[in-house]
């Protein structure tokens, strides 16, 4: 996983929503890496020498946004451009990201007989020149100018903004920055989020023309007022999402890069293969465990799926797994990277900021749901290993004990993060100290010592990987700023509650569907931010705590990556295994089903907060155990037993158990026992011997 192969790079370009499109080489590539490394170094220093919030966010974006225009292709089809030959700046399914050719409906499991050409010296897969155009340089210069302008005299700029006395230059700079952010988002994650941002801007400007009686109407705002909201304070471009990108996310991406380059990725894969050796379900369990461990390094569902798939698919094939179930296992294991402590996805950091709680608290919220998620996958794998007649596979890997004795130190920095936060260290300080420890421990492995060159690579890699998230977070500030300025969030929340007639169950179902639909169009981070400010208040208005509401939104935003019809992680997995894309999506959905239902439990039931680690330890353990039985019932309903009656009974038992109340629990256990009894009776009738 240290450096993706050519095929992995193609798959990531085709299916990853947040991935750099260019690999620059030569002096320009070196210069970009140096600037990116300095950005990471700046973020590390700020942890111990804090900078005023607005100044820090502006400075971070002033470096990151120009890098976006240099590292990402435009994807624009210019009429005067020649049509012959390769087009390195041509957009694929995600605008601004180079994609591999669309796979055939039923591709072979191996790479195509005629592989794509090897990367050129500058690292570009197409082999064609891939340098920024004049337009890219002009956009980068404009981004730097409009962000350095307020930094030249920040106090005076802030006073003009708070007093609504912006100069014509301020308004022009704010409008230019708005356009630049829309273009940056279009290049990095596609048109959808850019279009949504434009709709919100039009609403802010023209909303005053809506009829007075309309719930979403407002008094209207002119350009100066909109720019003041978005550009001069911490409610727009430089709001909480931007703060998260400039602090939490870049620090954790640098930490992940250090782990990766110090050999942790290889160790995690080897350990997973060594831990499960001699059973028919071992290959599936191995892949899932490896996905969980690799998630600490990548933090991306698609990236983990692709990196894991290149190693694990041959093993799954040898074990006898059909293509679609194998793809489902890969995608489910990959998406677990965003759901699993200690390095959850970017949205989890935003939860900590919104709730004003320690990141350790967010990790605690995620612990039980994560255990239930992996329990569901392991049970489904156990069932499928019997259904498909899989077999044990001998893998050339050292013994687990030997690996742990030799390379177990890679776990120490992960544990250290938790320990330091438990000792009241901030998450920022904890991850920086853990990064330093991981760097020092790398000298125990001569092959992966973090010398000056590797440290520079890690710093550059950390910053470059955070560029698309930075663009998304800054652009999401447009949506958050408009919602705050117009009061739209409370109005839409009221509409949701009114449509659901004040019914919490219906509101929750509508909220889950809305977040999933939003996630089909925009990345996880953006869909969470938008849903948190619109759907979160609708749930809290009906008595749901903020922690429960935000975690509900978080899980459904993440699960959009495995939800048909897009399901990016499943599509990437199908491209690796050569399986049918739709059937791979449905298998992934089956493996991840508990993650779709458990969030309803902690929103709808009085004891649901125990699933977030809230309440007496005895209650937490009891509710976790009941939920585990519910997950087992789901596994039976989706493939563990045959017969429509038994499956319906098992599904009903799972739903009853997830109510987490005494009477439904007893009823659920009784229904589950009935399902098992019916299954046993029918099995004996079919096989009297």
UniProtKB/TrEMBL annotation:
Keywords: Membrane, Transmembrane, Transmembrane helix. Residues 102-120 have a biased composition (Pro residues). InterPro entries: DctM, TRAP_DctM-Dct_fused. The chain crosses the membrane at residues 28-48, 54-72, 134-152, 164-182, 194-216, 236-258, 326-351, 363-383, 403-421, 427-444, 464-483, 489-506, 513-540, 552-576, 588-605, 617-636, 648-681. It comes from the Bacteria. Residues 177-598 form the TRAP C4-dicarboxylate transport system permease DctM subunit domain. Residues 81-127 are annotated as: Disordered. PANTHER family: BLL3936 PROTEIN (PTHR43849). This is TRAP transporter fused permease subunit.
């Amino acid at each position: 996983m240290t450096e993706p192969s050519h095929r992995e790079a193609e798959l990531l370009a085709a299916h990853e929503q947040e991935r750099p499109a260019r690999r620059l080489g030569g002096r320009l590539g070196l210069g970009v890496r140096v600037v990116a490394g300095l950005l990471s170094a700046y973020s590390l220093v700020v942890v111990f020498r804090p900078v005023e919030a607005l100044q820090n966010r502006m400075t971070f974006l002033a470096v990151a946004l120009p890098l976006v225009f240099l590292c990402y292709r435009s994807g624009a089809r210019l009429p005067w451009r020649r049509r012959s030959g390769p087009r390195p700046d041509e957009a694929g399914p995600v605008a601004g990201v180079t994609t591999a050719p669309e796979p055939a409906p039923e591709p072979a499991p191996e790479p195509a007989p005629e592989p794509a050409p090897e990367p050129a010296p500058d690292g570009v897969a197409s082999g064609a020149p891939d340098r920024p155009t004049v337009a890219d340089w002009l956009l980068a210069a404009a981004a730097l100018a409009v962000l350095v302008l307020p930094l030249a005299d920040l106090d005076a700029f802030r006073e003009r903004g708070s007093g609504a006395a912006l100069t014509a230059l301020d308004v022009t700079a704010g409008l230019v920055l708005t356009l630049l952010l829309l273009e940056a988002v279009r290049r990095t994650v596609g048109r959808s989020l850019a279009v949504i941002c434009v709709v919100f801007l039009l609403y802010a400007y023209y909303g005053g023309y809506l009829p007075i009686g309309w719930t979403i109407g407002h008094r209207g705002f002119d350009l100066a007022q909109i720019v003041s909201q978005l550009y001069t304070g911490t409610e727009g471009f430089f709001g909480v999402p931007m703060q998260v990108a400039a602090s939490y996310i870049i620090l954790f991406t640098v930490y992940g890069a250090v782990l990766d380059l110090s050999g942790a990725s290889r160790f995690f894969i080897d350990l997973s293969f060594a831990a499960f050796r001699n059973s028919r379900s071992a290959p599936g369990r191995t892949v899932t465990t490896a996905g969980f461990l690799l998630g600490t390094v990548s933090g991306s569902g698609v990236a983990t799926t692709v990196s894991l798939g290149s190693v694990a698919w041959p093993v799954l094939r040898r074990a006898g797994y059909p293509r679609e179930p194998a793809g489902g296992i890969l995608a489910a294991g990959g998406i677990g990277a965003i759901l699993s402590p200690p390095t959850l996805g970017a949205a989890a950091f935003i939860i900590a900021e919104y709730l004003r709680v320690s990141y350790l608290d967010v990790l605690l919220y995620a612990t039980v749901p994560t255990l239930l998620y992996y329990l569901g996958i392991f049970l489904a794998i156990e069932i499928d290993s019997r259904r498909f007649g899989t077999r044990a596979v001998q893998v050339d890997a050292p013994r687990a004990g030997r690996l742990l004795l030799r390379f177990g130190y890679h776990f120490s920095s992960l544990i250290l993060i938790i320990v330091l936060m438990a000792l009241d260290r901030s998450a920022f300080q904890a991850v920086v100290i853990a990064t330093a420890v991981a760097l020092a421990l790398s000298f125990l492995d001569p092959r992966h010592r973090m010398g000056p060159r590797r440290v520079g690579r890690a710093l550059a890699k950390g910053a470059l990987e955070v560029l698309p998230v930075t663009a998304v977070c800054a652009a999401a500030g447009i949506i958050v700023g408009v919602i705050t300025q117009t009061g739209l969030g409370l109005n839409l929340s009221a509409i949701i509650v009114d449509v659901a007639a004040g019914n919490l169950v219906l509101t929750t179902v509508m909220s889950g569907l809305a977040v999933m639909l939003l996630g089909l169009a925009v990345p996880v981070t953006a869909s969470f931010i938008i849903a948190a400010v619109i759907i979160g208040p609708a749930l809290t208005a009906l008595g749901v705590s903020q922690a429960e509401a935000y975690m509900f939104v978080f899980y459904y935003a993440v699960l959009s990556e495995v939800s048909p019809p897009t399901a990016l992680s499943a599509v990437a997995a199908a491209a690796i295994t050569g399986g049918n894309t739709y059937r791979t999506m449905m298998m992934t959905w089956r493996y991840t089903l508990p993650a779709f239902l458990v969030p309803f439990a902690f929103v709808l039931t009085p004891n649901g907060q125990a699933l977030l680690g809230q309440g007496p330890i005895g209650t937490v353990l009891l509710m976790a155990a009941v939920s585990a039985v519910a997950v087992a019932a789901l596994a039976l309903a989706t493939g563990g037993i045959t017969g429509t009656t038994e499956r319906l009974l098992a599904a009903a038992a799972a739903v009853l158990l997830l109510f987490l109340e005494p009477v439904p629990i007893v009823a659920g256990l009784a229904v589950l026992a009935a399902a098992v009894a019916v299954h046993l009776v029918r099995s004996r009738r079919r096989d009297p011997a």
